[in-house]
């Protein structure tokens, strides 16, 4: 009798664990995307070229990433937004859009 109950409950437990692991995987990918956007914003605020930043982002995250550059409030910061569609192999190609956005202050101008 215990074996029959396990046979009925085990598939449901596996599905719940799979969904939990998929959610954790998405959050880890989102955290990585946020760290990369912070690094890209720092590079932009220090005067790196758009090409250098895009190359660095694609090296770290992959080629399917959209990179957007814009000025922050009052022009005192450089901002970078990243967008990447991530799919989980076990869900039949369903894409989950992940986005990260970070701004970094520009260094103050030097009088000289």
Written account of the structure:
Helix content is 50%, strand content 26%. By secondary structure, the protein is of the alpha+beta class. A three-stranded antiparallel sheet has the order 1-2-3. A hairpin with a 5-residue loop joins strand 1 (65-71) and strand 2.
Oligomer class: single chain
The number of helical runs is 2
Structural class by helix and strand composition = alpha+beta
Strand order of the largest sheet: 1-2-3
Describe the largest sheet: 3 strands, antiparallel
Rg from C-alpha positions?
21 Å
Please mark out the parts with pLDDT under 50 across 5 or more consecutive residues, or reply none: none
Helix content percent band: 40-55%
Give the end-to-end Cα distance, rounded to a whole number of Å. Answer: 86 Å
Q: In total, how many beta strands?
A: 3
Tell me, rounded to a whole number, the average pLDDT: 88
Shape summary: elongated
- How much of the sequence lies in strands comes to 25-35%
| Order of H and E elements | HHEEE
Secondary structure elements and pairings:
Elements: H1 2-45, H2 50-61, E1 65-71, E2 77-87, E3 95-105
Antiparallel strand pairs: 1-2, 2-3
Helix pairs in contact: 1-2
Kindly list the characteristics that best describe this protein:
112 residues, alpha+beta, 2 helices
